[in-house]
Fold each of these.
Amino acid sequence: MTEIEQMIAKARVAQAMYVRHFDQDDVDLAVKIATHTIYEHAEELARMAVEETQMGVYEDKVAKNRNKSKGVYWDLKGKKSMGILNIDERTGLIEIAKPIGVVAGVTPMTNPIVTPMSKIAFALKSRNAIIISPHPKSRLCSARAVDLIVEALAQVNLPDGMVQIIREPSLDKTQELMRLCDVTVATGGMPMVKSAYSSGKPSFGVGAGNVQVILDRDIDYTLATSKLVTGRSFDNGIICSGEQSCIYPFEQREAVMAGFRANHAYVCSAEEREKIIAAIFEDGHTARDVVGQSCQKIARKAGFEVPDDIKVLVVESNGHFGPEDPISKEKMCPVMGAFPYQYFEQAIEIAQTNLSYEGKGHTAGLHSNSQANIIKAGSELSVSRLIVNAICATTAGGSIQNGLPVTNTLGCGSWGGNSISENFTFKHLLNITRVAPLQTRMRVPSDDEIWA
C-alpha cells in the first residue's frame, strides 16, 4: 500500500468508530477543542507561518488565527449535524443527516493555519474523517497546527486517524488523495482547484478573487478609505477576499485621495504607476517575489522608496478598465487600483468588467448610504457576496455580525467555475436522506385548479 492508501484506510476505521461512539454533545466538544487550540496557540503558529512562507504580517496572522477560530466555533455552536434535522409539518418529510466519509482538505500557503483548522472543524462537526494536504511551502507550520489539534483531542479519545496530515506533500500525493477520498475541499490556486474537479470525486473549490469596491456619493470618504486600507493591507494583501480596486465618483478624487493619504496609503504618480505594474506583474500574473510583501519592498523593487508607515500603494487607472489596464487584475500584495466613475451605473460597469477579466463570482464591496444602490449592485454584479460598509478582507469569509458562515473557503458559483455560490461550511459535508411518506390527508387539487 502507498502512504496515501494507508492514510485512507486508517481514516475509514477511525471515522466508523467516531460515528459509532460520538453523539452530538461529543462532536460539539471536539469542535470546540479543535478551534480553541488554534486560538490558544495563535502567536506561535503565526510566527511559524511567517518564517516558513516568508509572506504576510505576523500581527495580522495572530488576529486571523484568533478571529477565525472563535468565529468558526461560534458559527457551528449548537447547530445539529446528525440524526433528524427537520420534519416538515405539512408534508411529513423527514431529513436525516449522514456523514460522507473521508475528506481531502487541500490547503494553501497563504492561509496555512486557519484553513486546515476550519476544514478540520467542519469535518468533525459532520462526523467525517479528514486528511490535510498542505502546500509544500507551508508543510511545517500546517503540520504543527494539525498536531496541536490532534494532541488536544486526545482528551476526548478521538479515534486515531480521524485527523491526519501529509507530512511531505507533493502534487502526486495530493492527486492520489483526491482520487481515493470521498470528497475534496480544495482551497488554493486555480490549477489545484481544477485538478480537484477532475479527480473523479465530488469536490468543492474556490475561484480567483479580485474584489472590486465601489464608493458611492454622499459618504464619509475618510472612513471608507480607512476600511479600504485596512482590508488591502491585511496580511500584506494575500487574502483572496481583500479589497483590490477602489471605484469612486470622479468629482470626489481629491477627497478620496486625501482619505487614502490620511490612512497611510501612498498615491503613486503616473511614472511610479508604470514602475509598480512592471514590478508586480510578470507574463500577466502576479510576480512570486511580491506576494505577501510590504509596500516598502515592492516600491524598492520598482525603483523608488516610500516611507516606513505606508501600508498600501494606490495606483490610479490609465483612463481604462478591464483588460485595457493591468491594474484591474488581482494583486496578491498591498497594491490597490483606483478608477473614477461619472454615474453609479458606470461604477457597476467598471466593477463588472474588472470581475469578468478576473475574479468573477467571488466578492465585491460597496460603501453607500443608499439602499436602492445597495440592492442595484447586489442585483447586477456577478458575485456570490456583496460586502456593505465593511472591510471585505475580514468579513467576506464570515462574521458574527453579517450572517455569512465563518470559513476560509468561499464558493464563487458557476461564475467562478465552482459548485456552490456561498461560504463553505459543515453542511456541505453532509449527505441528507429524505424520508417521504404520502400524506393522504392532504387534498390533491383538480386539474382545473392547478391550471387556473
Amino acid sequence: MALKQGEETFTKWTHVENGKVLVRRIQRLEVQARDGRLYVITGADLPDFIQTNTGNGRKGDNLAQILLKGGQKSTFFRMESRPWPTARDALNFVIGFFAIGILKFILSIAEQAF
C-alpha cells in the first residue's frame, strides 16, 4: 500500500550509491516487462518502499528491493489476461502470408524472364 500525505499518494524511493543516500517520493512508477509491455503503477497500487543500490557489485547484493506490507497481496506485476491471438498477432500473420505470396510471385516472374 502506498504512502499518503494529504491528497498526495506516493512511494518512498531510497537510492544508495557508495554510501551516499538519496531519498525521493515517486507518484508514478513505470516498469517495462521482458516482452516489451509497459506497466504503469500509480495510486494505491504503489509499494510502500523502493530501494536501489549501486556501486561495486558483489555476489548476493540486491540491485533493487521492493517491500510490501506483510500479508499484503502483491499487485506490483498485475498481469492482465489477454486473449490469444491478439489483433497484433493476427495482423502479423496476415502480413506474413501476403509477403510470402508476393515473394513467390516475384520469383515466378524472375524464372520466366531468365
Amino acid sequence: MKALSDYAQKFDRLRDNCPVRAAIDVIRGRWKPSILWELHGNTKRFSDLQTALAGVTAQALTVQLRELEADGVVARTVYAEVPARVEYALTPRGRELSAVMDELEKWGADYLARSAH
C-alpha cells in the first residue's frame, strides 16, 4: 500500500500564492464534493460511500479518499476486527470545509436557476 504522503498535493507555486487556488485544489476531483457531502455529519464505511456514489470505482474512491486524508479533511479509522472495519469521517478541518461547501451549494443552486432561463 502507498504511504499517505504519496497522496499529498505536489508543490505548486500558483497554489502557494493563492488561498482560493489552494482551497479549490483540495476539493478538485470528480468524486471529492460528493464524498464530502456523504460524510457531512456522518461517519461512513467504504462500502457505504461506494453504494451512495453510483458509478464510482473502488480504485477511484480509494484515491480520492486518500487525497482528502492527506489534505487533512478526512480521517480514516481502522478497527482491529475480522474482517477489518474501516470508517471515514470529517476532521475538524473537514467540518470547516463542509461549511464552505454549503455556501458553494447555495451559489451553485442560484447559478443553475439563473442559467435555466
Amino acid sequence: MVSLEHFIPILAVTLAAATPLIFAGLGELVTEKSGVMNLGVEGMMLVGAVAGFAGALQWGVFGGVICGAIAGALAALPFAFLTLSLGTTTSRPPGWR
C-alpha cells in the first residue's frame, strides 16, 4: 500500500509531465469538432521540442522558445495548407455530426 506522503509527489509529477499532452489533446478535440482530424499533433510537438532544445543550447532560454515556436509552426504548415487551402477533411458518413 502506498502511503499518502508518497502518493502526493507522484501525482504532482504526473500532472506536471502530462500537461503538454493535455494541451495537445484539447487542441485536437477542438479541431476534430470542426471536422478535421490531425494525427500529427505529437509529431509537431516533438519537432518543436527538439528545435527548442537545440536553440536553448545555442542561444539560451529565449532563443529556445523562439526556435521551438518557429519549428512547430513550420511543422504544422503542411497540415494547415492541406486543410485550409485545399479543403481536405476527414470523410464522415452523411448525417454524422
